[in-house]
Amino acid sequence: MARGYVSNRNMQRARRRRRTGIVKAVLALGVLAVTVFCGIFVVGLEHAEKERQRDLFGGVIWLDKSELWKAAEDTTPPVISGVKDITIPAGGSVSYKRGVSVSDDRDKDITFTVDNSQVKLYMVGDYPITYIAADKAGNTTEVTATLHVEEPTVNTATEELVNHMADELLEEITTDSMSQYEAAEAIFNWVHENVGYVDHSPKEDWIKGAYRGLKEHQGDCFVYAMTSKCLLTRAGIENMDIEKIPAKTSHYWNLINLGEGWYHFDNTRRKDGYSFFYCTDEEIMKYSRAHDGSHNYDSTQYPEIQ
Description:
The protein contains 6 helices and 14 strands. By secondary structure, it is an alpha+beta fold. The strands form 5 sheets. The chain has a 4-stranded mixed beta sheet with strand order 4-8-7-6, with no helix packed on it. Strands 11-12-13-14 form a 4-stranded antiparallel beta sheet, sandwiched between helices. The chain is elongated, with a radius of gyration of 43 Å.
């Protein structure tokens, strides 16, 4: 009987040891599983970070400190606001993006351009301009407006406009083979023959004077001088303005330097038919003395004239 009791106790102990072993094995497997899972998660985070850095278009991977998720595909294009038609005088400047803004529901760095390739600022007409915005996902928005280029007036004329007009005229009246003397003479003759004399015109600035001569083809001595100034300058001929000492009447003309010193250049039409191309100081002062000081100037204000 005693031996049977001992045998039962031994069997119970053996069963308890087996159960303990099983529990320990399960716990070990659990620890191993957690370790493996954590390792895989860390590797996944590192891989996701690499994907986030190089995935610039389409689905973008966003990594937060505590969670990793992939945003839905970006299919919403940017929004362009404030686009409207623009009206300028020929030769005027244009601020295409003034008052225009662009936004996107996701991106802050948006590509925004204006296609104005068909615009001719110096030619009257209507031209399409297209505003284009693109986000990182490749979604684009285009909005088209019209640029109205209107006929300029003397009050809207700009230096860029009169320079453009002068360049076009120089292509007609000069050639690359001409010497500076020949080009200066061509300019002198065109202004003298194509600008009609009127007794008075405003003298507020040289740009308006040049515009009146190049566009309206009429004016007084100031217009002749400023038209010549513009053409001579665009032709690369050194020149400067000269003015009669104020008296009962005023008078304006030009000086030019073709590498031989300064000479008088006065193509204003006169009743007696006189004009003064490449004249020496002695020649023009002789005429001035005989015509009530027509060219009496302050010699201290100008370089020595031949």
